Every structure is written in structure tokens, then in C-alpha cells.
Please model this.
Amino acid sequence: MNFSEDFMNELRYKNPVEEVISSYVVLKKAGSTYKGLCPFHNERTPSFTVYPNTNSFYCFGCQNGGDVVTFIKNIENLDYVEAVRFLADRAGMAMPESGYDDSVEKLRRTVLAINRETAKFYFECLIQKEDGGIGLKYFSGRKLSAETIKKFGLGYAPDSFDKLKNHLRSKGFSESDMILANVCSKSQKTGRAYDRFRKKVMFPIFDLRGNVIAFGGRKFPEDEGAKYINSSDTPVFKKSKNLYGLNLAKNSGEKTVILTEGYMDTIALHQAGFNNAVGALGTSFTADQANLLSRYFDEIVVTMDIDEAGQKATKRAIEILKTTGIKIRILQVEGGKDPDEYIKEFGANRFRMLLEGAKNDIEFKLLGAKNKFDIETDDGKLNYLNASIEVLASVNDEIARNLYASRVSGETGVEKSVILNRVQRMRKSNEKKALKKELTEFTRPKYSPNDVNPDAKKYRRAAYAEENILAVLMQYPQYAKYVFEKLSGDDFLTSFNKDLYLKLQEILVAGKEFEISYLSESYDSKQLGRVMEINSKFSFSNDIEQVIDDCIKVIFDEKDKLGIISPSNMNDDDFLNALNKQAKDKKGKH
Model:
């Protein structure tokens, strides 16, 4: 490990996993563990489990797992060293002066420095009226004040291929780092860097700590091309894990957040006094963004456009937000206007009245169903009833189901008891389908090229035997010598199991007992989750040596069937023959 064992032990001791995770996830005690809704995927039934005794977590839904450092890496979108630093700061610990590789952290710091200098450059170009001041004219035309422009650090990217590049070079940054930061692109013809954003008004995107992590560039109305160009993912930015303006909104003191579709609506709301507005960085709202908002707010008002794309985005956002427990309301602005347009025409007070009357998610869905059909006709009324029953069947609160069933009954003339009876039947049917799906996924696990151990699909029997061996080593380290004398890493048929075996060998030979934290630096949360799954799904009788022998026999039998001979079991002549055969096979393929 890059950090000393003493330092990491102290770090974990001062950052109990249940305490750290409870600041992000609502946890409920369940015996010796804690359970909650997973922050890494959408779920309605808690499958996220925290184990204080091993300082670890595991989600049975998405198979993410690991220790407290892994959790912070994922939830805060940090690399390993940054996550350690985060926890050290939390515990009031000083980072070691040396003894760890900070190359990735240095790279991130370089990208952040480039972004900071780029944002300053764009702002200076804006206020110095570069290219005739068209950037400032655009923002003035959108009724943005000088104070708002400064607050959001807005800017202008000149109509040039090299002004930003030359400026950054004068500050000592390399072209390769500019390309990595995504403020420059690489020419396919010359291999040289050129400015990525040109003749655009610019919107810097900040993280929660106030660092510039990315940019959005908007074209002028008269220009051709895409309306917006946004930064791609970089070492400091992942679009799905960030929200525009959250660095400001989280300090608003409000318990309600207003979610808009993008930059200008968010900025206009802040200028009008709604400092709790954030932008979704596009219509594809994500679970990571939902979980981020639920950490700072109790309620969300979704204000997407009323066009088809906006409505789809709203419905998607509702389903994602439901998993967080945050209260949801939907705002549909009069006349199909977006918040920016509405505030300009009618003022902030009238928009505040709209906010106060925003519908909850059930009302929004029922209204959407009602608007689809003409309920003055029998056919339309029947279609509306069926759509309403489907909506109400998804509502878990019995009081809410009764309340809205009464409303639908009044609109259609159908008795409330009949509606509720149909709702209950649909709920039971949905529960059976969900249970069947869960059982199918449990009993017939799916494999894909992106699985942690895709080789397991090809070598099922061997993989199962390998996992038994790995579980023995994790649970009964006293049998390590017995295993290591009989089995080498080269005997494994699946690559992930082989890698884990070698790591366990290193840990156990050093005289340590297995802890998941020993792997948190080299494995991601999916890989760590797989390790935890292997460790927990096997239990053994007293005859551990027999289990080991049986599993080793299965592995060697499978290799014999495939005609594979391990280098560890070859004499010199066999090894040379195998190398020659391998060379001939490769030659024959070309």
C-alpha cells in the first residue's frame, strides 16, 4: 500500500463507516448492521448494507462494495488519494509527508489550475469586449446584471483557434494537459492543440468546493451548429455526478431546491432571488444527481419544459427521485414558458406564487393522463380510468391512494370502491412480477463483457471452485500454507480470481488476516463488491482440507479437459514445447 498501515488504521478508526455513510444515506439499524437505500443505483427496497464490525459496505442490488475510503471515492467522485485526504481532513489528521504516489492527484490539480485560468481568461474577454463585445451584448440582452455575471463567472470564448491555447502556454501549461482538461482539442491532421470553445458565451461549472471543473459554451442565435457544447468527462468532471449552481444553492438555507433544465434558467432564478435553483446539465437526470440533491434538501420542485422531451425528462426525474425519499413537486409554467422567460414577463412574485402551487408527482401524472383523453366520451373516460389506476397502483401511501381515488371517482362517476379494488389487484400483480424478476435475476445471473470476472461464463465449474478456494483463504487464513503449496496463481482459469488469489497470497504470507480495506486502493467498488460476495456466499464444514482438495481437483480436471498445462507443473522441456506451440498458433492466426 502507498500509505503506511498505521496511518490507514488510524484513518479508518477515526472515520467509522456507519458515521461517514449516514451523512449521505438514511440508515436504519438492523441487528449488528445498518440498511438504507443505495446511493449508487435506483431502488425502492433497501439493499444497501453497512457492516460496522468490518468497516465496510455492500449493496445486494448493484453489487458495489468496499470500505469507507471506497465509499468516499464513489460518492464524492474522487481518486484514492483524494478520498484519503478527504477523510483525513474530516478526522483532523495530517497527511503523511511522503510514502504515497500522488501522481493522479497532481494531474487533477493541473487540470483544476487550467480550468481556473481558462475561466479567468473567458471572463476577461467578456468584460474587455473581445470581438466587438458580442458576448456582453448577449448577456445584457438576457437582462443579466453585472453582479450576476460576476457571481457565476460568465465569460466569452473569442472567435480564434489559439488565443486561449497561447494564453495557457504563457502560464506554463502544456498542450497535452490542455487537451486532457478538454479546453483544447487535438487536430487529427497536425496533432496540435486548438481552442475547443470558439465564439461562444461561456458558463463555468463549479464543484461543491468552488473549483471550476468544466464549461458549457452557447452559440449565438445567428450561428449554425449545436446550441450548446459542453466539456466531456475529464479527471475532475463527470457530467452525471454534478449539478450547475449547486455550489451556491447548498448555502441558500432553503429546504426546497428548484431543478431546471440548464444554465440560463438557473441563473435567472438566482438573479430573481431564488438562490436554491440548480441546473441538471441536460435532460438526462441521473441517480447520482438525485442522491446529491437529497443530501442537501428535503423537497424538490422540478421545472422542465412542457415539450415532449421535457415531459419525458420530468417523468424520468420523478422515478429516479422517488428512490431518495425526497418530496417531489412538479411546476408547469403558464403558457409553455421557461422560468427565465416567465420571470422577465411577469416578475419574481408571480413566479413564487407558481412555485407555491406546484403539483406533487401523483397530481402531475394524473393530470398528464387526463390531458391525453376526452373524458366527456365513454371511450376517453375508460382510457383515463385505466391510466389513473396504473398511476395509483404505483403509490405506496394508502391515504394518498384513497384521496386521489376519490378525485378520479368524482371526475368519471365511477364508484371509488371499484377504482380502489382495481388498484389493489394491479398492485398485487405488480408485486408478483417484481418478485419473479428478482428471483430470475438471482437464480440466473447474467454475464456480460463488462462483468468483473467475464471468464466465469466460459469456465463455470472452475470459477466456482476457484471462488471456494478464495473464500477459504479469506475466512480461514490458517489454511493458507496448505493451499499455496498445492495451487499457484497460474493454475487459475479466470483472470479476476487469479488476481485476487495473488493479492490474498501477498496479504497472508505477510502474516496478516484478510480485511477488505487491504484491497481498496487497487480495486474499484464493483470489484470489491465481488470479493465481498465471494466471501459471504460460501460456508464450510469442519473438513476444510477436503474442500480445498476437491476444489483443486475440479480446477485441474477442467484444465485437463481444455488441454491447459500450468507452467508451475511443467519441466523445462515441456515449458519450451509449450512456448513453441504458442508461437506457432499465433503465427497461424496471422
Q: What stands out?
A: Residues 416-443 form the longest helix (28 residues). The first strand starts at residue 28 and ends at 30. The chain has a mean pLDDT of 87. The chain has four domains: 5-91, 102-237, 363-443, 455-589.
